[in-house]
């Protein structure tokens, strides 16, 4: 984590475009029932204004917006979504055509200050650094509320993202995808009458990478990186066994896509870890909010019943 918690640049536009198009990697996002309950409570206890003017910062896939619309109804909510990603905002408009959008960095939001009844963010504002919390707070009008669920540096998502980054780095270092491409090309050649010796040679070269994949799954669990390691391992094995059922160009294109996504996936996982707030950072944010005239009614880690690892930091504050 950097001193002000600002994360390294990540191509989030490519990420959100990829989730829409069917990215090979899972997002790492969470729609946990506790988070849904938290946001349901936020909107049920929101200021009694109609329509309720809401700004959702770093909206991403619109998880918070969806709950707001479900509870308040489109006619009773006036929602503005702020995000750095054009693709994320375009996707949001397709899902929620009545929302307003604002493409901006959360550290510098070009919206009227003190003009919103409720400002929200889930796993988003912290990516822009701690100063983004105060930029977001500046949008709330007197009598309005601020509600945030942010990554926790000692939490379950932090642990999952850290493991995912390390697992994919190890897969990358083992050259599994490159060697799998060589193996399958040789296997296609054999199916078309080519020399079996070339296939056996490719299989021998790939053996250490296969062993490393087994070690990764043993150490981190088969679920690591959203099951991507296990799925890739199994898919390559199945394609190899049933090579005549596949088109060579499609398989090589699929492997190329996986290979191209490697670095950006690692970057996203590391960015999540870097954005996560330590207890000291969270306490400082809460203190600074009180200095800005907010009264904090809830500030705590959100703990699932089945785990001692926090799901998030949650914060609810009212502007005096």
Précis, in short:
This protein folds into two domains: 31-155 and 276-319, 3-Layer(aba) Sandwich (Rossmann fold); 157-272, no CATH class.
Polypeptide structure, described:
With about 325 residues, the protein is α/β, with parallel strands linked by helices. The protein folds into two domains: about 30-155 and about 275-320, 3-Layer(aba) Sandwich (Rossmann fold), CATH 3.40.50; about 155-270, no CATH class. It is about 50% helix and about 15% strand. It is built from eleven helices and seven strands. The protein has helices at about 10-20, 35-45, 65-70, 85-95, 130-135, 155-175, 175-190, 195-220, 230-240, 250-275, 280-290, and strands spanning about 50-55, 75-85, 100-105, 115-120, 140-150, 295-300, 310-320. A seven-stranded mixed β-sheet has the order 3-2-1-4-5-7-6, sandwiched between helices. The longest helix has 28 residues, at about 250-275. It is elongated.
Silhouette: elongated
CATH topology tier name of the largest domain = Rossmann fold
Structural class: alpha/beta
CATH architectural designation of the largest domain? 3-Layer(aba) Sandwich
Strand content: 15-25%
User: What's the arrangement of strands in the largest beta sheet?
Assistant: 3-2-1-4-5-7-6
The overall average pLDDT, rounded, is 90
Number of helical regions: 11
Structurally, the number of domains stands at 2
Task: From the alpha carbons, calculate the radius of gyration and give it in angstroms.
Answer: 23 Å
- Looking at this structure, what is the CATH superfamily of the largest domain? Vaccinia Virus protein VP39
CATH level 1 class label of the largest domain: Alpha Beta
Give the ordered list of helices and strands.
HHEHEHEEHEHHHHHHEE
Main beta sheet, described? 7 strands, mixed
Distance between the termini: 32 Å
- Beta-strand segment tally: 7
Query: Can you tell me the residue ranges where pLDDT is under 50 for at least 5 consecutive residues?
Result: 15-29
Helix percentage: 40-55%
